Amino acid sequence: MIIISKRMAACQSGFHDQKLQKRLVRVPIESGPNVVLCDFCLSRMMEAQQQGGDLTMAILYQWAKEYDDIPKLPEFLRRDCLKRCQIVQFVNHQLLRLRKANLHFPRILLDPDEKGRFIGIVEENKNAIHDALGGFFSNSERGNIALRLWTGCLCAAKECRRTCVTEHEPDGTAMRESPYSSDIRAESFNKIMITSREDPIYQAGVEIAPVWELIENAGPDKKMYLDGIPELNQSPITKYLKDRNKTVISAEDIEMNSLHP
């Protein structure tokens, strides 16, 4: 049941644009209290849930752009795909850690400070982010780079799994999965490539998706499926592959000393 009220504070969606003045509604969520959402954010969440979409990548990419905008990847990171993977893995671990307290993060913020705490950890962690990026950047610049790398990597990795989520449970977990078709993957990667052409740091995340998924985030007999990706042998996702035309890959197909441009 959705309750409409005039006495509400602010939309609790992680991607809400504060410039928008929309009607607020109180919405019950799975395993949590009722939350306040504007009708625009609520409709976007419901549409994504029905289509099996995951808004997490879009939200974290938006947050990255709010904090700073580094124009290109630092040269030492461009040469070091494992260091990029370590940054992605750190961001991923922090995201999973926060979801132990809030299953819906970052789509819904149960606490107004959740976003700031997450960004602060990503910007300031001395063991992962500082080691990877050194002392060359401000906190906001480190956060910007880390979130854009994570978004590019996760967007690409998710599209190269054997199945895709076609419907979510209210808490965001998968309710129904279907095999990826080459047509679905082609459509998804056309969108990924639009952002890649506009954002070299996002593209650097796409490049490391196989390395992160098959080595850093490895599982038993894990494979990635590339059938349908447009211009596969020229795609950034095949940069670190021994054979850039191969459509089913495992860890043995990775070549981290790749000379591909």
Number of domains: 2
Please give the radius of gyration in angstroms: 19 Å
Q: Strand content of the residues, in percent?
A: 5-15%
Oligomeric state of the chains?
Answer: single chain
Taken from the alpha-carbon principal axes, the silhouette is globular
Q: In a few lines, what is going on in this structure?
A:
The protein is mainly alpha-helical. It folds into two domains: about 1-50; about 50-255, no CATH class. The protein has ten helices and seven strands.
Give a quick set of tags describing it:
261 residues, mainly alpha, 2 domains, three-stranded antiparallel beta sheet, 7 strands, globular
Describe the structure.
The chain has helices spanning 39-51, 56-67, 75-78, 81-98, 114-124, 126-133, 139-159, 182-198, 200-207, 209-216; strands at 3-4, 24-27, 35-38, 163-168, 174-179, 224-225, 248-249. It is mainly alpha-helical. It folds into 2 domains: 1-51; 52-253, no CATH class. It has a 3-stranded antiparallel sheet with strand order 1-2-3. Strands 4-5 form a two-stranded antiparallel sheet.
Sequence-ordered SSE layout with sheet pairings:
Layout: E1 3-4, E2 24-27, E3 35-38, H1 39-51, H2 56-67, H3 75-78, H4 81-98, H5 114-124, H6 126-133, H7 139-159, E4 163-168, E5 174-179, H8 182-198, H9 200-207, H10 209-216, E6 224-225, E7 248-249
Antiparallel strand pairs: 1-2, 2-3, 4-5, 6-7
